[in-house]
Predict the structure.
Amino acid sequence: MSLFGSNEKKYVYFFGETKGLGKEILGGKGKNLSEMVEMGLPIPSGFTITTETCDLYYKSNKTYPQIVLDQIEEKLQQLEKVMGKNLGDPTDPLLVSVRSGAADSMPGMMDTILNLGLNDESVQ
């Protein structure tokens, strides 16, 4: 069960929790991943931060409101549990990829970060 009351806005969704949400909310990549999970395809677990979060960030003076940070933490803990690894673990860290996205395709305009979770100890 979520730590958040039913009246609180959701900004972060685990893959598969997004039935009925469109690419306007999930971004194109997020929507595609959601649909693949719904079809039962074997994709890695993960979560999507909604496109609304970007708007909220700018309306909040370029800071993330605590509700967003709390929801990201909740989904990260869920991901760590599913994967049986922890982000930043010095010996066998959970490694994640971060992909930016938007409702409309923007090739070459967005960033990708691979192997987030590596640190000086785990690289050795």
Summary: The CA atoms of residues 107 and 113 lie 15 Å apart. The domain at 12-123 is CATH 3.30.1490.20 (Dna Ligase; domain 1). The chain has a mean pLDDT of 87.
